[in-house]
Design a protein that fits this description.
Helix content is 46%, strand content 17%. It is an alpha/beta fold. It has an 8-stranded parallel barrel, surrounded by 5 helices. Strand 4, helix 5 (104-112) and strand 5 form a beta-alpha-beta unit. Helix 7 runs parallel beside helix 8 and helix 8 packs parallel to helix 9. It binds (6S)-5,6,7,8-tetrahydrofolate (THG).
Length: 264
């Protein structure tokens, strides 16, 4: 699993406070903790008003890149913001995200043409998030075909099927799994990603729901996860799920992580 560490996000109250106080040490430690816990990419999201977003994101990017060697996942709903901060990235990472809303693809795809950047593509458009699998897959197809015109190969694209809270759609997980299955049949090389916490909105014991959702998503073939790599229970669930899904040869990663070391 490709792990995208989610903790540097201005919508989290403690991070919002740190951004407002320009508390560099706090952000730095979040970057280091996530890198040490196994994050492959560090998501940076300003979560501020658009007027402050470019300056805030640049500040976050500079701190993270100074603290760790991991590539960034630049998280903003505004393609113009991404366009402006892109130059401050020291190495290729992931753009989070495009969708079929407005002209997002038309701004972002030329930006990453001829680079090694990857992109998360959300399956929504000007009509919002579709309720059914077919429309999600249609939107994904349109974005994948557009990307091809810019030489962006399928393996650089992470489709995010935008899982809806289970409390508002009883079939949410089934639709998520169905979308992964259809996409992988059409485009075996395309990646699928997801956040893990939307599923449990409005429910008690959210941790349990999130962990079990992760297990199902791993089994369905999800390639990357936007998650908290410092959450030990979640990482244990991930390792166990990968072993159970046959994604951990000889269960080596799981065993190395959890078998008591026998010395002597
Ligand atoms: N898809 C894509 N991008 C995304 C999301 C997605 N970016 C934002 C969001 N969803 C993913 N990021 C977060 C960040 C923090 C939390 C949830 C999602 C969060 N954090 C708690 C905290 O830090 O206090 C608890 C974390 C925990 O212990 O697990 O809730 O869906 N493309």
């Amino acid at each position: 699993m490709i792990i995208i560490g989610e903790k540097i996000n201005g919508t989290i109250p403690s991070v919002k406070k740190a951004i407002e106080a320009r508390d560099e040490a706090f952000i730095r430690s979040l970057a280091i903790k996530q890198a040490e816990a196994g994050a492959d990419y560090i998501d940076v999201c300003a979560g501020t008003a658009p007027a402050l977003e470019v300056e805030t994101l640049k500040w976050l990017m500079d701190i993270v890149q100074d603290a760790v060697d991991k590539p960034l996942c630049i998280d903003s709903p505004n393609p113009e913001t991404i366009e402006q901060v892109f130059q401050y990235a020291q190495k290729p990472g992931i753009i989070n995200s495009v969708s079929e809303e407005g002209n997002k693809c038309e701004i972002i795809f030329p930006l990453i043409e001829g680079t090694d950047w990857q992109v998360i593509a959300l399956t929504c458009d000007d009509n919002g998030i579709p309720k059914d699998v077919e429309t999600r897959v249609d939107i994904a197809k349109r974005m994948i075909e557009k990307a091809q015109k810019y030489g962006i190969k399928n393996e650089r694209i992470h489709i995010d099927p935008l899982v809806i809270a289970l409390s508002t759609d009883n079939d949410s997980v089934r639709k998520f799994v169905g979308t992964i299955e259809s996409l992988k049949k059409l485009y075996p090389d395309v990646k699928v990603t997801s956040g893990l916490s939307n599923i449990s909105f409005g429910m008690p014991l959210r941790k349990v729901i999130n962990q079990n959702f992760l297990t199902i998503a791993v089994f369905a073939g999800m390639d990357s996860a936007i998650m908290d790599p410092c959450n030990r229970e979640m990482i244990t669930t991930l390792y166990a799920a990968e072993a159970l899904a046959g994604r951990d040869r000889f269960c080596r990663r799981f065993s190395n992580a959890y078998r008591k070391k026998i010395i002597g």
